[in-house]
Automatic annotation (TrEMBL):
Methyltransferase type domain location: 38-126
One Pfam family hit: Methyltransf_11
Lineage: Bacteria, Pseudomonadati, Pseudomonadota, Betaproteobacteria, Burkholderiales
Keywords: Methyltransferase, Transferase
Family to which the UniProt record says this protein belongs: Belongs to the methyltransferase superfamily.
GO biological process terms on file: methylation
Full protein name: Methyltransferase domain-containing protein
Organism of this sequence: Duganella lactea
GO MF entries: methyltransferase activity
C-alpha cells in the first residue's frame, strides 16, 4: 500500500488542523491508568503531544521517517519509526492505544493482534478520524462540490472509511460511545489552501495531469473568500470507534 505521507512532513506539520485538548483529556479519563500511551500512525504528533499532558510516557509511532523528523517534541514524549503491524512495545504494557486519521491505512487484523499483545488489562483502543469539513455558508457550497464531485475521484479507496467515520470497520472490542467533539479553527485563505495541498487526492490529481481541478477551485475560492487575510471558520466533526480490550 502506498504511503501518501512519506514525503511532505513539514507541510503536514504546518497545515494539518490540531485536535482539541478536550480529546486528549477524554481519552485519558477512560484509560485504566496514566502510565503509558501509544499513538500509532502518529504523523508529526498532533495528538501525541496532547496525550503527553496526561500520561507518564507517550510513544508516537509512524512508518514515515519524514513525518517523525517533523514531530513535535516535549516532555514525556518519544517517537519511533515503526508500522502499525509491528509495534516495538512490551507485552501488556500500554493503557491507551490511539490511531488518529490513520487506521484506514492499516492491515487491521495484524494491527489488532498487536493491540491485544501490547495492551494492558482493560486497555482502551481509540480509532479517531475527522470527517468532511464545513466552511462559512458563502464558501461551503463550492467546497462541497469540489470535495465530492471534482477531487472526489482521486481519493484512495481508503478515504471512504474516513467519510463514514469508520462505521464499517471491523472493531472486535468492548465498544462504548464517546461524547461529540469537533475541531475548530479560524484560517486565512493561504492556510486553507496549504491544508488542501496535504491531501492525497490533490497529489493524485496532479500525478494524473489534472492540476487544473485544484487551480479552478482555488480561483473560485479566492473570489468567494474576499480578502485572503480574513479568517474564516473551518469545522470538522471528530468521529471515533473506541473500546476496551
Amino acid at each position: 500500500m502506498r504511503n501518501w505521507f512519506e514525503q511532505g512532513g513539514s507541510d503536514y506539520a504546518r497545515f494539518r488542523p490540531e485536535y482539541p485538548a478536550q480529546l486528549a483529556a477524554y481519552l485519558a479519563s477512560v484509560a485504566p491508568d496514566a502510565g503509558l500511551a501509544v499513538d500509532v500512525g502518529c504523523g508529526n504528533g498532533q495528538l501525541t503531544q496532547l496525550l503527553a499532558a496526561h500520561f507518564g510516557q507517550v510513544v508516537g509511532l509512524d512508518p514515515s521517517a519524514d513525518q517523525i523528523a517533523n514531530a513535535t517534541t516535549g516532555d514525556h514524549l518519544s517517537y519511533q519509526c515503526a508500522p502499525a503491524e509491528r509495534l516495538p512495545l512490551a507485552d501488556h504494557s500500554v493503557g491507551l492505544i490511539t490511531a488518529a486519521q490513520a487506521a484506514h491505512w492499516f492491515d487491521l487484523p495484524a494491527f489488532y493482534s498487536e493491540v491485544r499483545r501490547v495492551g494492558a488489562p482493560r486497555a482502551v483502543l481509540a480509532l479517531i478520524s475527522y470527517g468532511v469539513l464545513d466552511l462559512d455558508a458563502a464558501l461551503n457550497e463550492r467546497f462541497q462540490r469540489f470535495y465530492w464531485q471534482e477531487i472526489g475521484p482521486y481519493w484512495p479507496p481508503e478515504r471512504k472509511l474516513v467519510d463514514s467515520g469508520y462505521a464499517t470497520l471491523d472493531f472486535p472490542f468492548e465498544e462504548f460511545q464517546a461524547p461529540p467533539m469537533h475541531i475548530r479553527v479560524a484560517w486565512r485563505q493561504p492556510e486553507f489552501l496549504g491544508y488542501l495541498q496535504t491531501w492525497s487526492a490533490v497529489r493524485s490529481a496532479r500525478e494524473a495531469g489534472r492540476e487544473d481541478i485544484v487551480t479552478r477551485f482555488a480561483d473560485d475560492l479566492a473570489v468567494l473568500w474576499g480578502d485572503e487575510q480574513t479568517p474564516r471558520s473551518v469545522t470538522w466533526p471528530i468521529n471515533m470507534r473506541i473500546g476496551r480490550l
